[in-house]
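Q: Joint fold for the lines below.
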Amino acid sequence: MKLTKILDIAAIAGICVALYFAFMFAPLEKVMGAVQKILYFHVASAWIAFFAFFVTFVLSILFLVKQNYLFDDIAESSAEIGILFCTIVLITGPIWARPIWGVWWTWDPRLTTTTILWFIYAGYLMLRKFIDEPDKRAKFAAAVGIIGFIDVPIVFFSIRWWRTIHPNVVQEGGGGLHPDMTKALLVSVAAFSLLYAAMLVKRTRIALLTRKIDSLEG
Amino acid sequence: MTYLSTVAAIVRKDLLHELKSREIVVSMLLFSILTVVVFSFIFEPGSEFKNRVVGGILWMSVTFAGILGLNKSMMSEVNGGNFSALLLAPVDRSAIFFGKAISNFMFMMIVQLITVPLFIVLYNVNIFHTSFMPMTVFLMGTWGFAILGTLFSIISVNTRTREVMLPLLLLPVMVPVILASVQALNIYILGLDVAESYKWLKLLAVFDIIFTVVVFAVFDFIVED
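A: Joint structure:
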């Protein structure tokens, strides 16, 4: 209880610091201007989304091996937070892309893979909603959590090969970030990681309580 | 009973059942031919543009007919309680799974044996004019589809929504197979250098091997009671 309070406060403070670093500390980008500030939240969200799905993958394996429902609850919670941040990535991306690339969307490997990732875990969460028996739900969801995550790199490489055949609208950019921008980005990633941890603890507690209520009713 | 004889027994059971009822293959076949015909309305008959999209049409008809057939195949197992009975048998569970996957694979191949020649006639494109390499696309693509499709169909028939869940789970995961198969078929249809398709065939092979192993490792855990 005490630890989770500290985590909550750290997450809130971290986000405030990250906002300061993104808007005050980091210099304004010469060409792109203020819209480039999206970078700090877009990249941090992408990192959290991928990390959250990785946690679901690991906890799914742990559940199948150990058959402990706590692992299933954490896997579910992490996938839900993952899809939240994945949605943020897919919304902030086009907002940034429109003024810079001139298009809302391009079938670039990273964009397309993120979209497929979103669909895989949307399916994972829907599946959980549609199975009533806790035992079946946990096992089937774990199978999808494992297969879905293993599939992601294969999806990425297949789309990258596909796009090398067609002309690429947007060449790979980035790379040369100003050192202060890199610092701001790292602060943002750290703050988002704290936020993820705080959310995961809360969401897992909800999952545990839900399971308790279900067992009392059942 | 050895592992292989268990697999063979399941396949035999499914083939006998299908020979009697003919429900799965006939419904898949009609649906896949229908897809090929309906998709012909997206371009002018005989236009040059046609050759660039027909590979995609053929593979989509295989994919959607496959989803239809997988649902049908697993529903008839679950409805009579047959699948639970099979799992009670004192044999390796993954042998039952691979039996189902192989029979689903065979049903899909039978459908393609009829759909592909019809497709060649209807669209006036010979996908075999450079080589017989397209056969490897059909074999490997269908195996990848059958292995994950069989697993996901077992999962989806156990949900409240039944067959709705299968395409939602299966299609995003099948993206590499769809992409590789369509790209390889396009290379054959456009008459490009066959060597260009090798990387797509490799991708299909890698996908098939990885998921055959993963499903083999996971299946025992998810069905035990």
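Q: Anything notable?
A: Residues 93-123 of chain B form the longest helix (31 residues). The CA atoms of residues 156 and 162 of chain B lie 6 Å apart.
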